[in-house]
Amino acid sequence: MIPIKPSEITPKHVYLSRRDFIKAAGVLAGSMALAACGVSTPAPTGSAPADSTVPAADGRKDELGDPVNSYADITNYNNYYEFTTDKEGVAQLAAQFPTTPWDVEVYGLVNKPQKFGVEDLVSRFQPEERIYRLRCVEAWSMVIPWVGFPLSKLLNAVEPTSAARYVRFETIFKPDELPGQKDIWYPWPYQEGLRLDEAMNDLTLLATGLYGGELPAQSGGGIRLVVPWKYGFKSIKAIIKIELTDKQPATMWSSIAPNEYGFYANVNPAVDHPRWSQASERRIGEISRRNTLPFNGYADQVAHLYDGMDLSINY
Ligand SMILES: Nc1nc2c(c(=O)[nH]1)N[C@H]1C(S)=C(S)[C@@H](COP(=O)(O)O)O[C@H]1N2
Ligand SMILES: [Mo]
């Protein structure tokens, strides 16, 4: 099979048609099988191996002019505690995890609760490419070309009631398939939450693909949240439940360590993590550190959401 370069499928700002999306998914499905056999062992910060059929970084950039990370970096350096706490070990453990078919249930304070198949969401909401920075609270970052649609489209479809104030997300819980969930120290399932206005912001994405192709298991397939102005742990993977509620949801990290991980978790170089500075970060693939930007460089689109709030208290 001849690999299709993502740039040929998704030139900047061109929306993926359903047919192209499935075509791209097919191409990547083939290469993922390779990874599953353990044929490729890419270096965590290197580029795709020469014989890989996976598309390599092709020079596309984010709106600040920084290049996207390679597909190999994005899919071999992952935080996904349901598999392992070893970032370089996730890909191999996740290789057999089935991401299709995948259902997500949307319920709670809505007029039209419904269970959706990801396939249906893709045909209904027409995923587009979005190149976003991802800034982990551990002070590393990447630039990632997601394929997804705004969460607002899904929320509008289920019609939140006037009582809805927050959105709660929950990851699949299957300890037999996700071995990290056998570690009883963590309060599984992984949960996250957003205020409704944050969830409705156009930047907030439900990702169903990556690099013009399918969303591999280690990146959060079947479907994952991407909230680019917040620390990476808000961008919850493998979502099966989305609940509209009137109460601020408990989140996994803030329930384990409330003084370290707040509900808002907006990227903020002025507020350090208790154990390390957040002033700078290491972009995966780069040697020198770069300064971290307020709201991860998305202040123009989101700073207004926090008018009147003290972000050193609401961290
Ligand atoms: N379900 C789940 N979602 C998760 C995590 C996790 O461990 N489990 N880790 C988070 C963290 S800390 C980060 S930085 C991002 C990493 O996303 P990536 O591996 O696709 O780069 O996923 C987030 N989503
Ligand atoms: Mo993270």
Characteristic key phrases:
315 residues, alpha+beta, Sulfite Oxidase, Chain A, domain 2, five-stranded mixed beta sheet, 12 strands, globular, disordered N terminus, binds ligand MTE
Task: Give a concise summary.
With 315 residues, the protein is α+β, with helices and mostly antiparallel strands. The chain has helices at 6-9, 18-36, 71-76, 90-94, 118-125, 151-158, 196-200, 252-256, 299-302; strands spanning 103-108, 114-117, 128-135, 140-150, 166-171, 191-195, 205-210, 213-214, 224-226, 239-245, 280-283, 290-291.
Task: Describe this protein's structure.
The chain has a single domain, classed as Oxidoreductase, molybdopterin-binding domain (Sulfite Oxidase, Chain A, domain 2). The strands form 2 sheets. Strands 3, 4, 7, 8, 9, 11 and 12 form a 7-stranded mixed sheet that branches. It is of the alpha+beta class and 315 residues long. It is built from 9 helices and 12 strands. Molybdenum atom binds next to loops. The ligand Nc1nc2c(c(=O)[nH]1)N[C@H]1C(S)=C(S)[C@@H](COP(=O)(O)O)O[C@H]1N2 binds next to loops.
Question: Into which percent range does the helicity of residues fall?
Answer: 10-25%
Q: State the shape.
A: globular
How much strand content do the residues show? 15-25%
Task: Give the mean pLDDT.
Answer: 86
- Spatial separation of the terminal alpha carbons: 48 Å
CATH fold assignment: Sulfite Oxidase, Chain A, domain 2
The CATH homologous superfamily corresponds to Oxidoreductase, molybdopterin-binding domain
**Low-pLDDT residue spans:** 1-52
H/I helix tally: 9
CATH architecture: Alpha-Beta Complex
Major sheet summary line: 7 strands, mixed
Number of domains as seen in the coordinates:
1
Small-molecule binders here are:
the ligand Nc1nc2c(c(=O)[nH]1)N[C@H]1C(S)=C(S)[C@@H](COP(=O)(O)O)O[C@H]1N2, molybdenum atom
Radius of gyration: 18 Å
Order of helices and strands: HHHHEEHEEHEEHEEEEHEEH
Judged by helices, strands and strand pairing, the structural class is alpha+beta
What's the CATH class, please?
A: Alpha Beta
